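Hello Y.,

Per our agreement to keep a running log of every chain we model this quarter, I'm adding this entry. I've kept the format consistent with earlier entries: sequence first, then predicted structure.
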Amino acid sequence: MTQLSIVQVAVPVPLRREFDFLLPEGHDRSPVPGVRVLVPFGHRRLVGIVTGIVSTGQVPAYSLKRIVSVLDGEPILPAKLVNLVRWAADYYQQPIGIAWQTALPQLLRGKHSLTPNIPEHFVLTDAGMHCDESLDRARVQRRIMDAFAAAPGYCLDAPALKLISRHWRQPVDALMRRDWVRRTPYTEPPASGSQPRDFSLNEDQQEAVDAIESTVNFRAFLLYGITGSGKTEVYLESIRTVVNAGKQALVLVPEISLTPQLVQALRQRFGKSVAVLHSGLAAGERHYNWWRAREGHAPVVLGTRSAVFAPLQRPGLIIVDEEHDTSYKQQDGMRYHARDVAVYRAKLEDVPVVLGSATPSLESMYNTSVARYRRLTLTERAKDSALPRIGYIDMRRTAAQDGVSTILFQALEQRLERSEQSLIFINRRGYAPVWCCYGCGWHAQCERCDAHLTLHQRINKLLCHHCGREQPPQSVCPQCEGVSLGPLGAGTQRLEDGLGKRLPQARIVRIDRDSTRHKGSLENSLTAARNREVDILVGTQLLTKGHDFPYVTLVGVINADQGLYSVDYRATEQLFQQLLQVSGRAGRDIRAGEVLIQTMYPDHPVFRELANHDYTRFADYALSERKSADYPPYSRFALLRAESTRASAALEFLQAARRQLRKHPEHRRIHVMDAVRAPMEKRAGRYRAQLLLSAPDRSALHDALMPWLDWMETWPRSRTVRWSIDIDPVDMY
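Predicted structure for the entry above:
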């Protein structure tokens, strides 16, 4: 055995360390760090990543197992991205093997080849380019030839041909026999540069673009623009400069629902070489797009949270749209925040990063105040439209039917008469959030969660939105044996049904998680709305995030009071952001917009600031409250969670863990609060508890956490519960 023969491997198991292995039988050369290897682990064989080569390991070499096989001939990720994965694992105190698994597409977490199954590609020949023969009698061949003539590099792949005709194979074979088309090895069509824009930027937009384009090294920008101010155009112009310089841009969005419209805008400007990465894609398609980004074939890469780890051959710019959105925080597995990882990645890559929002997170607003970020402000709507007028409907003095007040209903009727569109927002899906007895007040509870069951009337079932449990609605009250049971409150389905009965002439479309389960359904509904094939949109927060509905002039908000009195210190911030975002869907074109918010508390301070569209003033007020309470961003939080099927086990575990932490000298630099039951203690049949830690800065928090978590991994009692650590938590439930 030669020196440097012990291979360190990150294995996808919940342990925060690497494992040592010997070289495979017959190998005298060590694998390069960053390649995948198949290793024996217990009774299984797992795919891990080589992270280093050492001469002496943690245990004697004779007790080590050998690597089964080396899967790659080259590192799977570039060096800077390897450093990013390690940083993310260290910062978020997560197992390095789980971090690596998060950074790779699903197929590459197994033994699949690094190179994907590349679709067949065909190219127009010289003879095909100059043929003048009519194909009027072969219409599919004619359409295919026209598509080849318009394609970049005169090249089309099998998926593109399938869009022209499901039966494309026979016509293409006929064209190949005539030597007009030939099959070709895959080569990405050369980037032809961006298409020129057909509009002018306003002064604020141009200043923002100039600031970003003049930055060639790392710098973080906060693009703060009111709703409808044209942040997307700033993105597109900044990307254009990067692409024309031969580099790549990475664009992150918080939800899959935002990808179709942004993909369309990017492809109109930069052609079809945009790679898309999100969980809604088939595994093969996601691997293919990931590979295109890695090889540098895609000048623009667009994706949701995990795309922050997408490999880029020539990175030039990173953009995080709707940066305030909590969807960027992974809530299980590898608990990371994609926005913050994006900023650190930009620093490693030495490229600018742009965080955009009409309602920036308080952390980002704070970072501009201390000069960590440069703030770029868009103060005018791009189409010279005025901000919508925001009014309040006092529900203490107004009757409502199926959740809709008389005042809001009249406003909907007026929009229908004027052939204008309306949007009704309620952050509750289903028909009604409660199934109750009108006689004694009993209500249906989930047996596995501390939560009400929600009525879904179309399928006549009560569903738990937390664990998925379902059951038929009771017809007899189990408490008083009465029979006067029915729904209480309103969800999206009840609003849709109620409005449909009262406004039978209206074309109503509901957009929530239930109505958009099938692939393409969300995109079809949004397209119908933009084509004026919809009169009223009813939906949840899927409708609040960045969508442009030019014909919507009325936004109605139902049950706006959720979040005013939550135990989560972020609830007010999130409520204000949500309401301001959905208000921004109104009046984005030349017609004036109006927002009507139903509330029991019209005089609440949040609503006063909202009426003025003054997010900056609200942020200043909220930050002052955070500072006085010593909450983030003026301190750092970590949340240790535990859960067990036994009622008291999780809480007892955290109490014991807290006692151990207080024995460590580093605990004096942090504040360790008491272990408490979670606000929703029982969920999916498990009892949950949590322990909150705060520190004045990151270093103090991590210095205390690292030895404590190392001890907990070896503590026998830690195997009796499920536990996890969440750095910078955004959900306190």
